[in-house]
Every structure is written in structure tokens, then in C-alpha cells.
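Changelog note: in this version the structure field was regenerated for every chain. One regenerated record is shown below for reference.
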Amino acid sequence: MEELKPVEMKFVRPKKKLISLRLDDGQIQSLKEIASHKGLGYLSLIRYWITERLSKEHKPALIHRG
């Protein structure tokens, strides 16, 4: 431990943009139920599903473009 020196590290999250998405009440309720069973928030579930689908449709490098 005496030979180790502390280093400063900075973790940067990719920037995200806010979008608006209109869903009907039934869709939102279904999302909330599915997300609850998975232990997630419904917005996290939506982001996960979008990322999953994009990775199937496009090369992974294209998903994270700004």
C-alpha cells in the first residue's frame, strides 16, 4: 500500500437529449407492469428496449453517435 499513489479519475456519462413521446394510457400501464416485474422503472425499460432494437437493426457503433 505504501507504494501506491492516489490518482484522480473522472467518469463521464454520455450526454442524453430529452425527447417527447406520446403513448396512450393503456400502453403506459402495460409498460409500468412489465417494468415492475423486471424491477425497473418504465422509462428505463423503454430505453433498454430501444437500445436492444437499435443493436439488432444497426451496427453497434452507430447507436452511440451524438
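Spot check on this record: The mean pLDDT is 88. Residues 42-57 form the longest helix (16 residues).
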